[in-house]
Amino acid sequence: MPVKLDLQATDPTGARAGFLHSRRGIVPTPVFMPVATHAEVRGMHTGEVWDTGARILLSNTYHLMLRPGATAFRKLGGIHSMMRWDGLVLTDSGGYQIFSLEGSREISERGALFRSIHDNSRHFLSPESSIAMQQDIGSDIMMVLDVCIDSTSPEAETREAMERTHRWAVRSLAARDAVPTEQALFGIVQGGTFPALRRESASFLVELPFEGFAIGGLAVGEGKEARNEMCELSTSQLPSHKPRYLMGVGTPSDLLDCVRRGVDMFDCILPTKMAQQGYAYTFQGVLRTTRDVFRLDGDPLDSSCSCLVCGRYTRGYLHHLLRGKHPLGTRLLAIHNVSHYQMLMGRMRQAILSNTFDALYRELSPKLSRVVKGPN
Amino acid sequence: MPVKLDLQATDPTGARAGFLHSRRGIVPTPVFMPVATHAEVRGMHTGEVWDTGARILLSNTYHLMLRPGATAFRKLGGIHSMMRWDGLVLTDSGGYQIFSLEGSREISERGALFRSIHDNSRHFLSPESSIAMQQDIGSDIMMVLDVCIDSTSPEAETREAMERTHRWAVRSLAARDAVPTEQALFGIVQGGTFPALRRESASFLVELPFEGFAIGGLAVGEGKEARNEMCELSTSQLPSHKPRYLMGVGTPSDLLDCVRRGVDMFDCILPTKMAQQGYAYTFQGVLRTTRDVFRLDGDPLDSSCSCLVCGRYTRGYLHHLLRGKHPLGTRLLAIHNVSHYQMLMGRMRQAILSNTFDALYRELSPKLSRVVKGPN
Fold first, then answer.
1. What ipTM goes with this model?
2. Partner-chain residue, chosen from B43, B72, B327, that has the shortest CB–CB distance to A316
3. What is the pLDDT of residues A226-255, one digit of tens each?
4. Taking the model in full, what pTM does it have?
5. Which of A276, B82, B187, B339 has the fewest CB atoms within 10 Å distance of its CB?
6. Using CA atoms, how far apart are residues A162 and B217, in angstroms rounded to an integer?
């Protein structure tokens, strides 16, 4: 079996801790996957990513099929070899990008026809071609191509998208199983914010031999309450012995909320994205390094943090770098933020194993979304 | 004595190898100093800079006095502490920037009055205030404030600038010696491309108790031949037991040319600047990574290079990163280019010590300025 969840503990809240076994070693869960959209965690090389504690990355099939393209992966030996990454890689299917980012595309039951944003060349993404591309990339966990629609779409449209997602899920499995492979495949639960559809989607998919299940179509503007509700409802329908992955979530406090609801895996661009904007996540809250008040601050970003940045640099130096838009600044914040996410997951995991998750939740939940207004 | 050159060997060509002794350890010469304009070697943290083999950096007083400003250096403990850099730092005086980069400034015998490019605030840079700022920065080697003029200026104007540079050199020394310090101070030979003025400038300055001498006013468009001539003429007038620093030079083949003419120290933004534009320096020539021909190239940038990048990544992956303008690409090229410069200096030094500099010169000089057109 390509990946397998070995559940170690389930907290009364529903939070789970385990190990994801794979051909590339064992990943403790719950786990956060830094995003390497273009086979690059923005500005960081894989040695640095590894040093944050991360052991699994997410990369984007849509972007990679356009550049560097399938030929490059075949010639240069897959994404692990290209990036020199010894951990796992999960690839999304391209579904989200096809439906969200593209203006001119034609979608039919067969798949989606679209044009490259780079050179206007024509490309076709179907359940089968997405799997083929993910096989060229050589990821450890592949995702099925799904139909992503606006979370405010009416029920009929949401049902239609969900049903096509189901038919595509079956085709994706068939494509994956056509050749022997060690690559896992996850199905994606859809259904918008309609509880009945979410239930129907989960119960359809769990009958299929996926190695794990993702919860899709959330974190797209439906609001935190609806997301938590749909997340909880979805996980309640999923088998406990398979990994559950909530796509595209989220802030540190979102992670607390959704681990609590039984999610095992997350990805989000926030740690690197917020770094670009000068924000550092800390266990005391969010710190905007460019605020004047940090200009002469000789303390590290977070004195409880063990990352390279907190070990070496002051807020004052980071303020200088970020204010001047010097590229090292963004990079150091990215290293810190990715490390912070890893430490947060580690603390949650430890709490689940020791039956203290609820206490940790109550301690961190208010802190993490605070704003750090000035020096300690 | 704050810094002292211990000359180990002088090649028949005039190339010199030695050790620069300082309060922060010993630096082998000839040496190339990566540029940390804003207390940052563009995109690289000091751990990475150290790993390239560099042990001395250059930083810019003009930029640092505007941001983060003297207060920040006093509060955060100087540039070594701010950057976490255990090697040496040389600071320029701000002269070049005041004369070259600024539109609105008033210059008199006292100094230069100018406005900040950031907030239009007024600043005054004099020989004394430049030393004071360099003392706040806490560099190991300070430069005198000099008068930089266009290398095509007529002789009378060049003489006037040179003579003021000399008066400012005397004032700089007095300012430095007003308080006990371990910071070295270098004088700057000026005189444009007029041999008589260069000789006069050198003979004036060598009578003053500077710990070293820089050759200024070159590499500003006077052409390679004139630069080499002025460089050779200047070094011939300087005492052999003190370090000689050619400011702002240059390409790898420029370094070969000027080490041959007796220069010990160099600085230049080219390694990081060219990285931004996608160029890698190799011992086979200059390689533009974004060329289509490298898209599927599975070789490292330079198989004779021992840097982190050549040990881990293919030209194909670098092509992908640079073509897509992904920030890791520029960074990896910067690491490689700075490493290449260090390796080049190391090879020159070894050749000088073993009396084979001329052979190395003849081997490398044509190679280094070649263009690498395709895969090996």
1. 0.96
2. B72
3. 999 999 999 999 999 999 999 999 999 999
4. 0.97
5. A276
6. 70
